Structure formats: structure tokens, C-alpha cells
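Repro:
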Amino acid sequence: MIALVDQLFGQSIGDTIDGSPGGNATRHINHSCTPNCEAVEEIDGRGRLTLRIFSLRPLLAGEEIFLDYGLIVDAAVSASDFQCFCRTSSCRGSMVAPAARPGDALVSAEPARAHGERSA
């Protein structure tokens, strides 16, 4: 079975950002199991949920940016259907989120936070 991955970004409130052709610039951000950027949800001045991309380290001019897609799929779907080819030393072989440990949440129920603000 070959899985087709749309360029969609799901937000915590259930909205979806479409990054497909003609969508927005997020369509150019590829997956890596060792990302150099992270996506952070924030509340803007008008009270709207927005998505911002922040680097995890200083980036060189022209360097490609990567997110860990951390896909969440139904139990009936195999992680191997979403193969990763990033070839980093920590490659999981799949773009699916790592298996959660007991008590871990795959999707955060926390409210959006400002960049740099971390949960306890």
C-alpha cells in the first residue's frame, strides 16, 4: 500500500492549514527526524490562533528548513506507510510520531504559548 501525504497542517483547535500548491509557504518545509525548526501555535493580538515556525538553532543562509511532521495516524494504518528518507542518525524510518509512553499525549491539550515559553 502506498500512502499519499497531503501537505496539511492540523491545528489543536481542529482547523487545517493547506500547504498544497497555491496554499502557503509551509509546503516547502520538509520532514526530518532531526528537525532544525519547530511549529508553534500562538494567539495573535486579535485572539486568533496562528502558526509560526521557529528555528531550533542558528541557520545558515540558504539552508533548508525541516520539521518533524510527527504524523498521528489511526491504529489501523501502519507507520511504514509513511516512510521517512531523511537518513539522519536518529531516523525513525517513518514520519509518524514516536510511540507514546503511558501517560504521554500525542496531541498536546495545552493552550498555545509564546515562543520560548516551555511547559513545566
